[in-house]
Batch of 3 targets.
Target 1
Amino acid sequence: MPLIFLMLLFIALPMTEFAILYRLATDGIGFFATIALVLLTGVLGAALAKQQGLQTLTRIRGEMAGGKMPGDALFDGALILVAGAVLITPGVLTDAFGFCLLIPPLRAGVKRALKAWAAHNVKVTTAFSGGPGGPTMGQPRGGFPGGRGEIPRGGGRDEIIDAEVIETRVERD
């Protein structure tokens, strides 16, 4: 599955983008208008990504100053970074995808979909070193004495987080 995805990403997508730009230049709006469109979307996309990135950075700083973990704001920042990267790439499809990521309601939908995928396909376990009974490995949160998720007293308090991606395959008819 990952090999097919990479082939599509690095071979099929650029070929499709080139075909669309060629059709726009020859049968559509013309060569110079196509070049202007590519340059305009790159500059406009970079400016929008910069503006939204700075707003998100301010939000992250505000949440951290308030003592909160800025999880959603960090996720927004990552999606804005992806949007900026695809917007400076010449092409109509990548520009459409990038602009969609810069529209907050659409970005929220992508964020929900990615979170649902991760909740279904990523397994997170934690382990604490040290403690009264020696190392506690592979215990889910709340698996310590008392079941309240507290860190064992004594010894080290280093937390180790291990994540594993579970590949899913979709059978198509």
Target 2
Amino acid sequence: MNKNIYILLLVFSISILTKAQQAPASKQSKSILILNATAHLGNGEIIENSAIGFVEGKITLVADARLIKLAQGAYDITIDASGKHVYPGFIAPNSTLGLVEIDAIKSSDDESEIGNMNPHVRSIIAYNADSKVIETIKPNGILMAQITPRGGRISGTSSIVQLDAWNWKDALIKENDGIHLNFPSSFKRSGSWFEPGTIEANKDYSKQHSEITTFLTSAKAYLADSPKEINLIFEATKGLFDGNQTLFIHANEEKQIIDAIQMAKENGVKKIVIVGGYEAYKTADLLQKNNIGVLLKRVHDMPENEDHDIDLPYKNAKLLTDKGVIVGLENSGSMERMNTRNLPFLAGTCAAYGLDKEKALQLITFNTAKLLGIDKQCGTLEQGKDATLFISEGDALDMRTNKLTNAFIQGRMISLETHQTKMNDIYKTKYNQK
């Protein structure tokens, strides 16, 4: 019986994995002008009646349509977006999109590598641009992602992609942007989400902390020398010390964050970002002083400790933002790939719990772009930046009104059709629904 179930699952999985790829859009060949929409620029500014133009994949015009005059035929295509909203494309950081297709099928799971210290592991070469999950998140405005490995103490190197490509090389926005370190926790929890257990001190914390320190110290010493034999693992850390890569430290507890920052600074790491940061609000002054941003863990969650405010996850972004810390949102955790589509609504929740609406938008646009080091290329609607943007019928941070009519990646008008929308159309036809 179990064998039969396995065979059926394997056949089903192969049928999904071999399904025809949705062809990426062709390079932009005609200039496009979007008129009369409310433009949310991603930097806190709004233009109520906007004119957004782009040519050959780059934004060439961002203006108030009421204050400018355009020559007739200045743009090949004009889209009247009256009553609609224009946004920069949303960015999903710390994501395993394209690294795992079906958790139960080992051959489709490339999110982690054997070993504990793997700075040389490059997640991008395992990225599957043909993943069926990817097409399901674009209709909510998520057009870029940071593809990030998992596992080990140092998981490896992430890269940033746009989500409409034939393969990983076509998808690249920034290759090997940073190395991901899973800092040890100072305590251990037992139990599960449905049956909480006890909390006790991690007796191995000092040892685990020391192992990371020793590794970074050894890597720095190796790079300062002229070794006869090449050590690929140490070679891979060079960007941390010369400022070309960011050290993304995955840590949630106050002590974790403080110890991790101190360790990284002492070893000469130039750029640091905290990923998770559940208790980062307790270290906000330290973060702000050292210009360290936070990619905040999924806010649609329960408080982790019984003495925390019930709404702490929802208001965490505001607590940090009010202290001057640059905050982005990430969505790792249970069922993270399919839940990526909910990223805009995490920002909407932050707005509902005190954060200004346009600042909440920055959590998944400009702020994230800045923390990933791609803010000169994308993250806001500004002249000279990539024309990666979309038009929505309503508020993109509200699941009730976020309905995209058009989306563009580097000026290319992409398809918003998915296998889910196809099935929706099929069954609407079957039951005579409009």
Target 3
Amino acid sequence: MNLMIEVKDIVKTYKLYKKPIDRLKESVLPMKKKYHEDFNALNGISFEINKGDALGILGRNGSGKSTLLKLITGVLSPTSGEIKVNGRMSAILELGAGFNPEYTGRENIYLNGLMIGLQRAEIDIKMNGIIDFADIGSFIDQPVKVYSSGMFARLAFAVAINVDPDILIVDEALAVGDVRFQMKCIEKMKELKANGTTILFVSHATEQVKRFCNRAVWLKDGVIEAIGESSEIVDLYEDYMKYNSSEDDQSRDAEKVESEINEEIETDMIFPNNPNILSMITKVNINGKKFKTFDQVEVEVEYDVYEKVISGLLLGVALYTPDREYIFGPNTHLEKIELPNTRGRHKVKYTIPRLPLLGGTYNIDVGLFNNEGIVCLDYKQEIVGFTIVNKYFSEGLVYINHEWEILQ
């Protein structure tokens, strides 16, 4: 395998001052009195990325993700350590980064292309493809200072992924922009990955990391907490966020939850005014509200498709406890079910022949996705719920088939 990025013992230290005047005092006063505290945003980071890898970078805000990407791209210099990069790099770090607000979109395409090492003649060849991909109409010849955040994202993505990079770096950029553009970007990124482009992908959407990336690294307080196969690292990270993060310690309004899980959404086949709504869940029914362990549970999902066709459309149904503990969540893509994806109203039934759950209350989420679950088209959280009531025969969350054998 060709080594594309080598990060070795990287430390990035910032000086933190309590007051702005302290920075001046430290620089001009004699005796070199220290007015700052050192903060290590990254503290001894080492890893390697090979050609064709898609590496997801996970971590809470402040864990060092963006600092790491800025070091790799050369926007920042490390305090100590070494970074080696092989190949042409294209990056989307912050909205509008690398754009001159006074230049037009077309002029900024030339500017960004020259910055990553393309010749003007090469940019001329790629210009029409970039403009078509961005799809911002006549705004391409307007100063980018008048652009909306979505237009910024479109142009930044269009430039970054249409210049044949060896390495593509994306920092939360998919959070901006409409669903149609997200789908187009994911398709292009998948094409680049298939052709051997190395991708670094930062996203708070862990399912995107799990489904798009083959490897992942979890940063915690400036160090690598775990690195390896993406599904494994995402599971470790989600467990940590669920059980160890104060961000998740939020109380629930029990009465509100009770009313929400019994809500049923139903609409007629009316095309929405919003062109970014491509598909919508219109009705969810369950065959009861009270069950016993081993009863059959049936969930009927009705949904509308407003496009002529949506490639890669999938449906997921997930079981949760009222505390949002994830129990089980299959989807039609993983189980190779061809979901109807043409314009019109469709209905699917999801059946659990023998529900193994023990006594308690449970909620069901239903979601429509595209691109193997990376792009969410519609999601209904806790759309229906049910309770399991048994005469006492076992304890725990699920019933597991088992045997007893008396040995003496």
